[in-house]
Amino acid sequence: MVEHDLAPLQSWQLGPLDQVVADAIRRLRRAPDVQRIAVMPDVHLADDVCVGVVLGTHCAIYPQAVGGDIGCGMLAVPFELEAASLREPAAAGRVLARLGSAVPARRRHRRHSIPMPRELCQPPLSAPELESLWRQVGALELATLGSGNHFIELQADETDRLWLMVHSGSRAIGPAIRDHHLERAKPAGAGLKVLAAQEEPGAAYLADAAWARRFAETNRRQLALLVEEVVLAVCRGRLRWEGAITTDHNHVEREAHDGTLLWVHRKGAMPAHADQPGVLPGSMGSPSYHVLGRGCAAAMCSSAHGAGRLLSRTDARRLVTERELHRQMRGVWYDFRNAPRLRDEAPSAYKNVQEVVRAQHELTKVVRCLRPVLSYKGV
Description:
Blueprint: E1 9-11, H1 19-29, E2 34-44, E3 51-57, E4 60-61, E5 73-82, H2 89-102, H3 128-141, E6 151-156, E7 161-168, H4 173-182, E8 186-189, E9 192-196, H5 200-235, E10 245-248, E11 250-257, E12 260-267, E13 269-271, E14 277-280, E15 288-293, E16 302-304, H6 313-319, H7 322-328, H8 339-342, H9 353-359, E17 364-376
Parallel strand pairs: 1-2
Antiparallel strand pairs: 2-3, 3-12, 4-9, 5-7, 5-10, 6-7, 6-17, 8-9, 11-12, 13-16, 14-15, 15-17
């Protein structure tokens, strides 16, 4: 294998990197055509390429540096409602119960599927098997939340206004697109595979990944509409869409940085161009932030995408008991019946989001701090 020089690295960290994370980033710095790398303060280990890493290339496209959940991101929308409306246990309980019925984690029954919006019907995906997959399951997965760290949260800002925050992505179609194109990619060393942007396989991946981003954003908006129906029924509160903030954190885009056009890959990192709005969530028991990008050139105009995992899911399930989860979630409404399956999402499984915000003060400025009021996760 040809040895490559290390690509330049910029990093914003809470402390020294774990050795396995540092080793993974070093391998990535040696990959062909990687021109520069930025590491966000929420970085943590993941398959192939760490979450919280941004890399720029001239021509090479690395699907693993985007990940499987292409277009996964955040949507925040204010309600015409005060958070005090959910202070009473009865109201919070009704909202949680209705969310459990209205917002499935996985596929809907065909009789309850949502019509596919016109903008997702054209152009078709690049391969017949991908086109067949989304036509079979796309409508069944539209407006489904997913599991793991995907969530719906009702939050209160400093004025006690109620906000909705949605975290979800492209569901099954994102991993299918990644896997399909990885089969057609060339080995690049260190377990990575690469496509050339100017050749047909690379162009096909870029088109399919752009479609997955549109699907993911549409999915979040459909989820928000379902939540609005629930809150309207219980508390008579509507969303104010003119105040919506939307961003995603798994994508590849063509951007100019320092006078050079690069393919900027973000995996677990959101864009933070000058004055670009963003949503930076904490854990389900800690604050979240609305931010504006500072357009930091050294970071390729990027930001952390959240608190970032501190413990692996295995370690969290080993260390966090149900009782401890209840203690950490004090003051936040959630369905305690799901506690056995939520221990790996406990607040202590994540980094301190306030420290993440401080570590990246060059990258973003805080507009609004929100505290969690009610958390709903698919299990």
